Amino acid sequence: MLHAYDKRESVGIYFWAENGGDETISSYMMANGVCDDWRDAVDKQHIAWLRSLPAIIRDEARGLVFVHGGIDPATFPNCSDEVRMWTRSQKFFDPSRWPKRPELEGVVVVHGHTPTSDFKPHANPCRINVDTGACFGGPLTAAVLAPGQGPRFLRA
């Protein structure tokens, strides 16, 4: 949304529009009135709030890292926000390809962005993928990460 809001290019707006943006624009226009430019219907406080959100949340005490897309195991924790939001790198998905680095010891990355092929969450000692393809008719999935226990999954 922020990319489409900031850029005046057709590619960004259409990509976002096809992935829920049309519905978001309609909601803002229903609430705030129809405008020639959809950006004028969006509450400025909402844009400020979106800009304030982090691309990564770390619970260092529990070794948990929460991102939308993933990380670059070679540069973590210094990977870019672009990687954190959008990566689909095979180096990230295959923990056997993660380099042996102290920064990765005991880390579990919780992410989505890449739907699982079987619409079930995938978990291994390095990462948990909770994207179970809700946008394709699969369930919406959340992970319950209780201290001292393996992940449990809630699906709706």
Short overview:
This protein has 156 residues and is of the alpha/beta class.
Characterise this structure:
- This protein is an alpha/beta fold and about 160 residues long.
- The chain has two domains: about 1-50, no CATH class; about 55-155, Purple Acid Phosphatase, chain A, domain 2.
- It is about 30% helix and about 15% strand.
- The protein is built from five helices and seven strands.
- The chain has helices spanning about 1-5, 10-30, 45-50, 80-85, 90-95; strands at about 55-60, 65, 110, 120-125, 125-130, 140-145, 150-155.
- It starts with a helix and ends with a strand.
- The mean pLDDT is about 95.
Oligomer: single chain
Structure classification = alpha/beta
Q: How many domain modules?
A: 2
The CATH superfamily label of the largest domain reads: Metallo-dependent phosphatases
Level of helix content? Answer: 25-40%
CATH class wording of the largest domain = Alpha Beta
Major sheet characteristics: 5 strands, mixed
Give the C-alpha Rg. 18 Å
Helix/strand order? HHHEEHHEEEEE
Low-confidence stretches: none
Question: And the CATH topology of the largest domain?
Answer: Purple Acid Phosphatase, chain A, domain 2
Number of β-strand runs: 7
DSSP summary: helix tally: 5
What's the CATH architecture of the largest domain? 4-Layer Sandwich
Distance between the termini: 25 Å
